[in-house]
Every structure is written in C-alpha cells, then in structure tokens.
Amino acid sequence: MDDREKLNRLRWRCTRRAMLEMDLLLGEFLERVYPTLDAAQADAFVTMADMEDLELWPLVNGQREPDDAVQAEVLALLRNVRVK
C-alpha cells in the first residue's frame, strides 16, 4: 500500500465516525495539522484514529489523560484545533 492510499484510508477513518463532533475535529486535524507531525506523532494519531469514539472522546475532552507521552502531545494539538 502506498502513502497516498494510507492517507486516504486514514481520512476515511477520521471522517466516518459515530459522533459528528469527532468527524469534524479529526477531519480538520488531518487536513491542517497532521502534515506537520513527526513520524512518532503521526503514528500516535493513527492509533487514536483507530480507537472507538467512546474510548477517544474522554481523551479529547480532557476527562482522561493518555499513558503515552507522544499521544499526550498529539492530544494537545488536537484540542487546539478550531473547526471551521
């Protein structure tokens, strides 16, 4: 699978969520911030995009903190995204 196909699959996972809020937030993050991430941060984001909304939402809204330091960095960036 090439990089373009991987990105398209990630875009699908980010914008076809159970929660509309997650669709909008993850989609916006993918378009604006994801290209600026380093490899470890990109991997952490992919891992989070694979989580179910009920598992990811508490991390995004700050009700729960991740155990992984790199995921914490990505969550900080994600929390600063403003959806248009």
From TrEMBL:
Alphabetical keyword list: Chaperone, Cytoplasm
Subcellular location(s) per record: Cytoplasm
GO annotations of cellular component type: cytoplasm
Domain of life: Bacteria
SUPFAM superfamilies in the record: YgfY-like (SSF109910)
Gene3D superfamilies tied to this protein: Flavinator of succinate dehydrogenase
GO biological process: succinate metabolic process
Primary residence: cytoplasm
Family: Belongs to the SdhE FAD assembly factor family.
PANTHER family: FAD ASSEMBLY FACTOR SDHE
Protein name (record): FAD assembly factor SdhE
Taxonomic path: Bacteria, Pseudomonadati, Pseudomonadota, Betaproteobacteria, Candidatus Accumulibacter
